[in-house]
Amino acid sequence: MKTRIFLTNFFALCSLFFALNTSAQKPPHLLAIESADKIELKANQSMADIENQEIYDKENVLHTLEEINIIIKDIQSNLSEYASKINMDDIAFNLQEIEIDFYNIVGAPTMAGLSPILTNLQMVKFDIDIRIGDHLHWGGDFGNSGGSVNKNYIRTRTYTDVRRFIEQTQYFDGLGRANQFVQRGITHDQRDLVSITEYEGELQRQ
Q: Could you give the C-alpha distances from 110 to 14, 49, 116, 123, in angstroms and in order?
């Protein structure tokens, strides 16, 4: 009996090790896509499960699940096109964390459990949108070390609430001089404002 229990535990540990090792070998963009797919599946399953149930704050719970579903579909769409073109290390990690938190919700979902899921997904979506914007505008991803353009920068984000932030990026040339300042979506019509500084010898011109 003890031998059988030992062998069962041994094989379970081997299976777990194999699964973790296989996951670790996958590139980050594939891990991100997998987690996004699982989050969508969980959202759909949760909506179907509680559709005919009487739970506390059902209307808000369903609305939040619908928001999660909308955001994750947008993330999936962007990942299908750009995941292999931008650095996905931290995005994959964040999506995996959200996936784990979502699947750890036992029983009927509540607003207390869903609100952090929604907020974290919104942050991931913003991060992906920014990196895609950098990729399209500059030909690289300045939000991380995986960009194809070698350019120094300082990026700051000032959050006005949990969903919105003001982003400013200062770029520098090879001599360490500031040569461009970008304020993302700062104008009244949500366009970027770009200030360029040019140098001629020792003179500076803006």
A: 35, 13, 11, 20
Radius of gyration of the chain measured on its C-alpha atoms: 22
pLDDT tens track for 46-70: 998 888 888 888 889 999 999 999 9
Q: Please give the Cα distance from 140 to 149 (Å, whole number).
A: 5
β-bridge mates for residue 196, sequence order: 180
- How far, in Å, CA of 2 to CA of 7, rounded? 9
Smallest CA-to-CA distance from 141 within 195, 199, 83, 96 is with 83
Look at residues 183, 182, 176 and name the one whose alpha carbon lies nearest to residue 199: 176
Overall pTM surpassing 0.70 (yes/no): no
Residue 200 φ/ψ, nearest 5 degrees:
-125, 100
Amino acid in position 31? L
